Amino acid sequence: MQTYPLFAILTGRPVLVVGGGAVGERKVLDLLAAGAHVTVVSREFTPRLRELAAAGRIRAVAGDFEPGQVAGMALVVGATDDPEVNLRVSRAAQAANIWVNIVDAPELCTFIVPAQVRRGELTLAVSTGGASPALARRLRETLEHTFGPEYGPYLRLLRAVRERVLQVRRGHPANAALFARLVDCPLREAVARRDREAIRRLLAETLAGVLPEAVLEELGGLMGEEEPPGAGL
């Protein structure tokens, strides 16, 4: 299967998930982590989905799927164990020109969801085009070991540094080389160790003359923050 890789921006966008079982729950959690507004249609819901509905984090519609429920959705996901229902979901979404994914049925999809590893704002995705989901899972496990949890706070720090630098010298011809030096230095290893002194020293060495000492101290203090809840979903 030939595909074109992309990352969808779903913050604040409505998404429909048909199926309230374990697979549907997993899809819902991924979509919530992406900031989507999720509606779930199902006769039954897992305890976790019922909790999310009670907390107002998702909209739960009890009952059978109706084609009109796809109206206005940015994406539709079919996650039931009934092939006939999944077929109806696919047809309804495609008739409305809405992107649709049917779990374990690539022939009914207009997009597929890759195996993924999330570390804060870092997302690594792997797809075999439907040829071998088992291989995709194995590659994902390899990536999970290669890219540890330190990448979440590390990327937050890189974002904060970049924003501060651009505030004082946006468009400066030396910015690209500066950001490259920051990535090439052992900053990630210092973050992994939670070594604040090493972090401050590396920031000072790399950003000397660019950002004032008070800002460098503030940036170094970011490592005291915990990973935001749900960042690793």
Describe this structure in words.
- With 233 residues, this protein is of the alpha/beta class.
- The chain folds into two domains: 100 residues, NAD(P)-binding Rossmann-like Domain (Rossmann fold); 74 residues.
- It has nine helices and seven strands.
- It has a five-stranded parallel β-sheet with strand order 3-2-1-4-5, with helices on both faces.
- The longest helix has 19 residues.
Provide the descriptors you would attach to this structure in a database record.
five-stranded parallel β-sheet, 233 residues, Rossmann fold, two-stranded antiparallel ribbon
Task: Walk me through the topology.
Elements: E1 14-18, H1 22-33, E2 37-42, H2 47-54, E3 59-62, E4 75-78, H3 83-95, E5 99-102, E6 115-119, E7 122-126, H4 133-146, H5 151-169, H6 175-184, H7 187-193, H8 196-207, H9 213-220
Parallel strand pairs: 1-2, 1-4, 2-3, 4-5
Antiparallel strand pairs: 6-7
Helix pairs in contact: 5-6, 8-9
Brief overview:
The chain is of the alpha/beta class. The chain is 44% helix and 14% strand.
State the CATH architecture of the largest domain. Answer: 3-Layer(aba) Sandwich
How much is the average pLDDT? 92
Low-confidence stretches: 224-233
Shape: elongated
Strand content: 5-15%
For this structure, the CATH topology of the largest domain is Rossmann fold
Share of residues in helices: 40-55%
Strand order of the main beta sheet, please? 3-2-1-4-5
The total beta strand count reads: 7
- Structural domain tally: 2
